[in-house]
Specification:
heterotrimer, A mainly alpha, B mainly alpha, C mainly alpha, C: 4 helices
């Protein structure tokens, strides 16, 4: 009975989606909003990457909220799994099987590259494809590899949590600075726009990107580490 | 400085800044996170309060822009009146919740920041004007909730948490998809832009997108039946978290629905049906619950359904002007009451309702509990009452009677399970150790109760019902409650003084027939209530409630609009209920009393709504000029008043409540309070006089009245308990009055008033006399008493006088009343009724004789040899009433003339159909010669009886009387088969059975709940598409 | 040229969502159900990106291939791309929370069978 209902439900959704696909025709023109962003982000914000420009300024309030979400997840996962860790540590250590030689050596070679790439993606977010979130995720994937390759290594949660907090506080402070010296909360014009297309340009966008990268990297690392068992 | 504070944005700076700082501060010193939390949460509340104040003082709209740009390019926040009220009330409740959860919160900085971000997220959902930003805030709120749910380590809480996550994640996934598609068709994410260009939302993509967003919002509001996950969370989460989910989280989602409603204009009926079904079925399934927090869960879900229904209905009817009162009132009412109840549940800490006997001995806790329950039930003076009134009025004006039925039925279920819980809380058990709760623990619930009063007054202000006289009863009761620690007699005296002074002030401008009732009920009430001097114990809570009861009766008589009438009517109901519930023996009878009273009140509400719809005004004066179409309103109102009068069939609440209440309270209920229903009947019969159907209905009412009389008398004869006998006797006597009113002639109404006055005095005396007998002999059973005439001669004299007057024997007032009634019936040609009246009088005579005989005459029991006369405090009121009876009997003219004069203007309009003039009435019945003759005959008869008694009572064996009754009791037993009780028991069992099957939907399986959610989305999609096609 | 790119993406996205729904409804293991949710999320993200595609458009980044002046005429709609970043992060967060609950439940009950976890009902 339940299974029949399930199949029927999937079929109903399939019909709904089929209707959508059939009615869909590929867009030929951009919405006025998109055109505004495409012209204004490079001109007004000085950022070649329009997506990053939107994310960090026009929809900066969303981004801040999203940071808050990750922040909460790090805290919540910590509470949910933190207390279990001690007793789990005992049981898991008896397994004794470490990762293979290949993984360990490979990790040693590749880890610095991953971290470097992460930093690059973070810092060039306003110039090319990338940004704080993407770079932060790259950094965290490096941390994951670290954990897999070297199970004995321990992350310093205290340090990470201070880092993410500081990054968050600085982010909000830059936002407030926007109210004081620029046109509003999260306005990126708190710093000079600089020369278009260079690393230090586009006002506060690279700075916010960096903070985001640090924060996201730290939070994702904490979350991943919590799941280690 | 102040202006810088009044920026919606600051709420988010406090929230984000505070929570980002908390881990940092945690590394520095341990108390710092708590401090930051308190500052940030306080800051959020302060900013929202400042915004609210500004919105209502000069600047109607506050807006914060971000990113140095303007919408639609960047995200903006807005606070208008709606946002201000919603955010501020949520933030206040959040502060209280933080207080409530403080011990848990401060143990973990993660809990602090989750709590803070949750509150901020709700503010964001309320204030943002960007659709995607709304999604982000929805996720912030959801994830904070998930985190807080994870703090309760119990497996049940975790399982419930997982169910909750599965369902809400599905819902928000649909929201995301819908948002994307809406952007695709409209090219904007700004809500104002989207509403302005809603014409673009068409075609399969646009409508599907709308359905997806709508499904998410409705599912997040926990619609029936896709809401088991919500119930499980309410059930198993800690009380503070449950309060947050029920109050804050739902508030955010509800506000989102409110904000986006213009997009859903074509699907308002769909939203209304979803809300209505949720309200009805959740309350139905709630009937079977025994776990306190799960009860609150069912009620929470139901209330959200009601709000959804109200929102959609008001929008559909174009009643935007009524939105603040209806939707705002329901919202604030639910928020405060439900949060308060969850706080209380946490403080009392008894998961099962049965365990709540632990608070039985704690008056303050009980008062707070009662206030919260009354509020959640939508009873006055709280905001929910004013909202429901307005909602029902609006629905009636639009002819949406089905919705009124749904709203009232659901409300009745809710009241049933909520007050069943209260019943447990008032049932003190001998070995039970009363729970001890520190004042600090009670603070949040107490604050909620207090704020409910404040918001209730504000809602009344919106309804235009803040006259001082309307609220004076509550004020007086509150004053007396503050001095509840004084000795009982001091309180009794202050009660009498307060009622006298304020009562006279309230009724001073009243005129006409209302003035007659005012004089009669106020003076009668004071006389009967003064009997409370015979009790020396403190009677905690009794005197404030009596004050409320008597003054509300006074206020009822002053009511000019049906709203004022209904408000004071409900106050009378509530004060009577709580008074009855104070008596330990009355536990099982208080709840039926309340339920039948509320059912009666709901009939009145529906009736008033119909009357308002046909008359076009709430003015009671318009009743007299109502047109032909008013008869359905008459039927509803008459049914309401008949339930309250204990008419046959719906009388099952009456004997228990009247008999098991405190002895002096029984006197007040039967003598005075029952007359309020009679006044109501007087009021509404006008509605029937212009139409044939109405007149037929009135005739039917006459039959009901006399059947009530007959059955009541027969039941009274069967009783072994004297208070129960008197209770049935009340029912019987009220039947006469109903019939007299139903005659709808001048003579009939004069008779009715005469009977009312007579019954008030007679039943006051009899119940007070019974109180004296019970006090002295300690038994209520007729057969265990006997021969008390020597010990209690004054009581016997009073009883004898009252019985003579009640039975209709000459020369006392009852005789005049009966005579008048028979004359009026014959005049109208109601011969069948007249015959029944004669039969009922005969049966009445039998039980009355039995009362006098078994208690006072007959053989004196040995153990009563030392019994003394009843205390003076009981005798004095009885003799005041006897004087009144004598005055009414022998000098009827000074009474009759004002009655006649008061009725005349009322019937001036009705002469069209009656044609009966004043002169003919007095020609028909001239009391002076009749009375002269009857007094003479009666004097002789009385002498004979007296002599026979003096010489012969010892020789009359009790068995002889028993043999005498052995014939009549079986003969009349056919009349008294418990048909009505069986019927109502069947109804309640059937309802509970249905409730039991409905709740089987909630299997507790998260996967099944996901299936429900998905099917709900499909259903919305299919029904919505069909609505588009039609 | 056949099907337009965005159509292919759209169909893929919706198929992922359907598979996800089936996963939620058909599997009893909580971890598999969580995978179902991840699939739904991913499917929605694909759909989001697909709806932002404009025929012939390129990435909205000003570089050698896309001048400042013709950005408004040649780039795809940047807004869905911006939204999808946020959506991905949120999807990740939700998955992490669900997994934590699953782990805690497994510790408490030693099972991941969703039919065995029905503590509160009716």
């Amino acid at each position: 009975m339940k299974r029949v209902c399930a199949i029927l439900a999937v079929l109903m959704f399939a019909a709904m989606f089929l209707g959508l696909v059939q009615a869909y025709s590929e867009r030929q023109a951009r919405s006025p909003l998109a055109e505004y962003y495409l012209t204004q982000v490079p001109r007004e914000l000085g950022a070649p990457n329009v997506v990053t420009g939107i994310l960090i300024t026009y929809r900066g309030f969303d981004t801040l909220g999203e940071v808050a979400v990750l922040f909460m997840v790090a805290a919540a996962v910590g509470v949910l799994l933190g207390s279990k860790k001690e007793q789990r540590a005992k049981t898991s250590s008896t397994d004794g099987k470490g990762p293979s030689e290949l993984v360990r050596t490979g990790a040693e070679v590749i880890l610095p590259l991953i971290f470097l790439f992460g930093a690059y993606v973070i810092m060039n977010g306003h110039l090319s494809a990338g940004g704080g979130f993407q770079g932060g995720a790259v950094v965290a994937s490096g941390v994951m590899l670290l954990i897999l390759a070297m199970p004995a290594s321990k992350l310093d949660h205290g340090f990470l949590s201070v880092t993410e907090s500081l990054a968050g506080v600085l982010y909000v402070s830059i936002g407030i600075l926007g109210i004081i010296i620029a046109d509003g909360f999260l306005d990126s014009h708190v710093l000079p726009l600089g020369k278009f297309g260079t690393l230090l340009s586009a006002g506060a966008i690279p700075l916010i990107s960096a903070l985001l990268g640090i924060k996201v990297g730290a939070e994702l690392s904490v979350v991943i580490d919590r799941f280690r068992s | 400085m102040v202006e810088a504070l009044v920026q919606p944005l600051n709420i988010f700076l406090f929230g984000l800044g505070g929570s980002f700082l908390i881990p940092l501060l945690y590394r520095i010193a341990s108390p710092l996170p708590s401090l930051a939390f308190v500052l940030a949460l306080g800051g959020i509340a302060l900013v929202s309060g400042a915004c609210l104040w500004t919105v209502f003082h000069g600047q109607p709209m506050l807006e914060s822009f971000t990113a140095g740009s303007t919408p639609p390019y960047s995200i903006n926040l807005r606070v208008g009146p709606w946002e201000g009220v919603c955010a501020f009330s949520v933030n206040i409740v959040a502060l209280l919740a933080a207080w409530h959860m403080w011990d848990r919160l401060r143990q973990s900085y993660a809990a602090l920041l989750l709590f803070l971000l949750l509150v901020m997220g709700v503010n964001g959902m309320v204030m943002t004007r960007d659709l995607f930003n709304l999604f982000v805030f929805l996720e912030i709120v959801s994830i904070a909730t998930y985190g807080l749910l994870g703090f309760d380590g119990t497996p049940a809480a975790l399982a419930a948490g997982l169910e909750y996550i599965l369902a809400t994640v599905l819902a928000s996934a649909f929201f995301l998809l819908g948002t994307t598609l809406l952007y695709h068709v409209t090219g904007t994410l700004n809500i104002d832009d989207m509403i302005a260009h809603r014409g673009l939302i068409a075609g399969p993509i646009g409508t599907t997108a709308l359905f997806l967003v709508l499904s998410c919002l409705i599912v997040e509001l926990k619609p029936f039946p896709a809401n088991g996950w919500g119930l499980d969370v309410y059930d198993s989460a800690s009380s503070g978290v449950a309060a947050l989910v029920s109050g804050a989280v739902s508030a955010g989602v509800f506000f989102a629905l409110f904000k986006l409603l213009p997009l859903f204009d074509s699907y308002l009926a769909l939203i209304a049906v979803s809300g209505g079904a949720t309200f009805l079925f959740s309350n139905l399934a709630g009937l079977r619950q025994s776990n306190a927090q799960r009860i609150l869960g069912y009620s929470s879900i139901a209330q959200m359904g009601l709000m959804t229904l109200a929102l959609a209905l008001m929008r559909q009817l174009g009643a935007d002007a009524a939105m603040p009162l209806v939707v705002g009132g329901l919202f604030v009412n639910h928020l405060l009451a439900k949060a308060g109840l969850f706080f209380l549940a946490g403080a009392v800490n008894r998961p099962q309702v049965d365990g709540w006997t632990a608070i039985a001995g704690r008056p303050l806790i009980l008062v707070i509990f009662a206030v919260l329950l009354v509020a959640i039930a939508g009873l006055p003076p709280f905001p929910g009452f004013w909202s429901k009134w307005e909602l029902v009025m609006r629905a009636a004006m639009a002819g949406q009677y089905a919705w009124i039925a749904v709203i009232l039925a659901g409300s009745l279920f809710e009241i049933a399970y909520m007050f069943r819980w209260f019943k447990q809380a008032t049932r003190a058990e001998p070995e039970q150790v009363a729970v001890r709760i520190s004042p600090a623990r009670m603070f949040p619930a107490g604050m909620c109760a207090l704020l409910l009063f404040v918001s209730g007054y504000l809602a009344a202000d919106l309804s235009g019902a803040t006259s001082l006289w309307l609220w004076a009863p509550l004020g007086a009761a509150a004053l007396l409650f503050l001095f509840d620690w004084l000795p009982g007699r001091v309180k009794s005296l202050s009660m009498l003084v307060l009622v006298l002074l304020i009562g006279i002030w309230i009724v001073s401008p009243v005129e006409g027939i209302n003035r007659l009732f005012a004089v009669l009920l106020l003076s009668g009430g004071l006389v009967v209530a003064s009997a409370s001097f015979y009790r020396t114990d403190p009677r905690s809570g009794y005197y404030p409630l009596i004050t409320l009861l008597l003054l509300s009766i006074a206020a009822l008589l002053r009511a000019k609009t049906s709203l004022e009438f209904f408000f004071t009517w409900e106050m009378i109901t509530l004060s009577s209920y709580f008074l009855i519930a104070l008596a330990h023996r009355a536990h099982d009878h208080a709840l039926p009393f309340l339920l039948f009273s509320i059912a009666s009140a709901f009939c009145l509400l529906a009736g008033f709504a119909m009357a308002a719809a046909t008359n076009g005004t709430l003015d009671l004066a318009a009743f007299a000029a109502a047109g032909k179409d008013a008869w359905p309103a008459f039927v509803m109102l008459a049914v309401g008043f008949l339930i309250k009068a204990g008419a046959v069939g719906v009388h099952v609440w009456l004997p228990g409540a009247y008999a098991e209440a405190d002895d002096d309270l029984s006197a007040l209920l039967s003598a005075v309070v029952s007359k309020v229903a009679m006044f109501g009947l007087f009021l509404v019969t006008y509605l029937a006089i212009r139409s044939e159907i109405g007149l037929d209905m009135a005739h039917l009412m006459g039959w009901i009245g006399l059947l009530t009389t007959l059955v009541g008398a027969a039941m009274a004869l069967q009783q072994a308990d004297m208070k129960r006998m008197l209770a049935y006797s009340s029912m019987s006597q009220l039947g006469y009055i109903v019939t007299a009113i139903a005659l709808m002639s001048h003579l009939g109404w004069v008779t009715a008033f005469y009977l009312i006055a007579n019954h008030l005095m007679v039943k006051g005396i009899l119940f007070l006399a019974a109180a004296g007998v019970i006090l002295r002999t300690g038994t209520r059973l007729l057969d265990e008493n006997g021969g008390l005439v020597r010990s209690m001669p004054f009581t016997f004299a009073a009883v004898a006088t009252a019985l003579i007057s009640m039975s209709g024997l000459p020369p006392l007032a009852g005789f005049g009343g009966k005579w008048l009634l028979l004359s009026a019936m014959v005049e109208k040609g109601w011969y069948g009724l007249a015959a029944i009246a004669v039969l009922a009088t005969f049966v009445g005579f039998l039980y009355m004789f039995r009362l006098a005989y078994t208690v006072f005459l007959g053989e004196r029991k040995a153990e009563f040899a030392t019994v003394r006369e009843a205390p003076l405090a009981l005798l004095l009121p009885q003799y005041v009433l006897i004087i009144a009876i004598l005055a009414l009997s022998f000098f009827p003219k000074p009474f009759m003339e004002p009655i006649s004069a008061a009725i005349d203007p009322a019937f001036a309009a009705t002469l069209v159909w009656d044609g009966m003039s004043l002169e003919t009435i007095y020609g028909y019945w001239n009391p002076i010669p009749v009375m002269a003759i009857t007094v003479a005959i009666a004097a002789v008869l009385f002498g004979i009886v007296w002599l026979r008694y003096i010489y012969g009572y010892r020789r009359v064996p009790t068995t002889g009387v028993a043999v005498f009754y052995a014939f009549y009791q079986p003969a009349l037993s056919k009349l008294v088969r418990p048909v009505a009780i069986g019927l109502w028991r069947g109804v309640s069992e059937l309802t509970l059975g249905v409730a039991g099957s409905v709740r089987k939907l909630y299997t507790g399986n998260g996967q099944t709940y996901c299936l429900y959610v998905l099917w709900y989305v499909i259903a919305i999609h299919v029904v919505g598409t069909l609505m588009d096609l039609l | 040229m056949g099907l337009p790119v965005s159509q292919i993406l759209l169909v893929t996205g919706f198929l992922l969502i359907l598979i996800g729904i089936w996963g939620i409804l058909a599997h009893r293991n909580i971890l598999r159900i969580i995978i179902g949710f991840s699939l739904i999320d991913t499917g929605i993200h694909v759909v989001m990106v697909a709806t932002g595609y404009v025929t012939g458009g390129t990435a909205p980044i000003i570089d050698a291939a896309l001048g400042k002046a013709d950005a408004a005429a040649n780039a795809v709609d940047p807004i869905p791309s911006a939204l999808v970043v946020t959506a991905i992060v949120i999807g990740f967060s939700v998955t992490a929370i669900m997994l934590s609950f699953a782990i805690r439940l497994y510790d408490a009950k030693k099972t991941l069978d969703i039919d065995a976890i029905t503590d509160s009902k009716w």
